[in-house]
Design brief:
Blueprint (H helix, E strand, L loop, with lengths): L1 H20 L31 H11 L3 H9 L6 H12 L4 H11 L6 H7 L7 H14 L5 H6 L6 H14 L5 H5 L7 H14 L2 H10 L5 H13 L1
Helix pairs in contact: 1-2, 1-3, 2-3, 4-6, 5-7, 7-9, 9-11, 11-12, 11-13, 12-13
Length: about 240
Amino acid sequence: MNNLNEAKIAVLSCLLISACSCQEIPPAKKDDPYVVGEQESTTKLDDSGQQTVQQKVTQSLSYRPEYQDDLIKLRKVQELPFEQASELYRNSLNHSNEAVRLATLESLSSIDHEGVVTLLELVLEDDSMLVRKKALTILAEAEKESATPILESFLFQSDPQLQIIAINGLATLGKKSAIASIGNLLVSDQYDVKKAVVLALGEIGGELSIYFLQQAISDRDSRIRRIAAQLLEEQ
């Protein structure tokens, strides 16, 4: 079995090399809809004077309109058992190129394994907002109990988009332990955050949720008051 998996890794490496070396990579265009991340000004070479496989994949994903083909090949890593593929994912999540990190997250999003939570934590403080948002969204949709403390910590982020993702994730998990933290966000000056809070309270339910919904009835925004009143009627 180990020999078979090693053979799969070898085949995948060959596919990635051939996909990136079969044609000259054109320069990036500012209006190219397929460009992800920023183009590097120089190309690093290994000891033999050749680009490494990882660097070729990076350029292929970032600058070629045909990057979707390479993305499909990258996803074939999922054919390996997660325990053997996890280190490959870890390395890709630490890659300097944003496109490679995003492609790796896309692959991880379809894997149902507790180890995915650990990998996603690696990029929750990534320099790229796109990467952070994608990783947190995967956590929120995974419905894993182990993701609860991570989601709760993002309730206190200053970015409203990340707050909303965390609120929705905790609501999906039905975490009554997070009601107080969620309810306290009713003081936010962001309508979308308060709307997410009220909807989450209605979904989680319970006496504490009703308490915060009653507070929301007095909100200065009539839209929030209307949603809260409707949810209270349904409790």
